[in-house]
Amino acid sequence: MAPSSHAQSNYPTKPIRLIVPFTPGGVTDTSGRLIAEQLSKRLGQQVVVDNKPGASGNIGTQMVTAAEPDGYTLLLGFDGTLVINPHVFAKVGYDTVKDLAPIGKIGDAVLILVSHPGFQAKTLKDVIALSKSQPGGLSYGTSGTGGTPHIAGELLKMRTGANLVHIPYKGGGQAMTDVLGGNIPLVYTAIAGAIPHVKSGKLHAVAVSSAQRAPSLPEVPTFIENGVADFDINSWVGLLGPAKMPKAIVDKLNAELNVVLQDPEVRERLSGMGITATPGSSEKFGEDIKRDLARFGTVVKAANIKAD
Hints:
The chain is of the alpha/beta class and 308 residues long.
């Protein structure tokens, strides 16, 4: 039975559970905790973070799709889980578009291609040219198979003909350690983990894959500036609920989320995690999800990427 309009107008009348489908401590979890803390103040009810890791985020996501669509179980959605997993896993247990109601995007996490300072190719054009001249290609590390950096690397190969060889690690930290040590020439990663190393000169920044330069590293050019047209790929995080959530509840949560995302302190804290706050409508977030599902699906199929 659908909740009454009176219940919706009083929403929320009890604590809300925010399922984070990853272990505590990562950037996705930390950003979720910040939003939960701020929404608790705005809504007058506790938003409780509940970590449900497993299967690259599929387990926690599936739990939300099976929950009552009453606004009391929400999902911290991540691009890897929602728009890449459905293509790289044989079965994820949910349909991103049919089983979830987008509430709003929290923010974009810019991706960056970095190299060891001793690596001879400094610009993206140099990297592409060098890769084509090497019979075995150039290795680039990422946090793992099927992650957004991996997809971005494969798309770069498709767009430029670069001869790049993917080296998946069990997390971005290990990949970073190897590029810092000069064991691999390149790493494609989220900007947050790279900023201190780029600023200290321990890593060289080749390019960022956002539409505009990143405010945290304004001197680093974009892939688009380097001649790769329409190369705008960010990792992102957002808020969703089960499908069939009443529009009044979606609208209320979206409005409150947007107020939180416009707060200068929240924006600064997100920026420290490498996330640019992106207040906007639930409809726009839904369109972004559909767009990424389609374009990442094309890359995954062409590169024949399968989950480990």
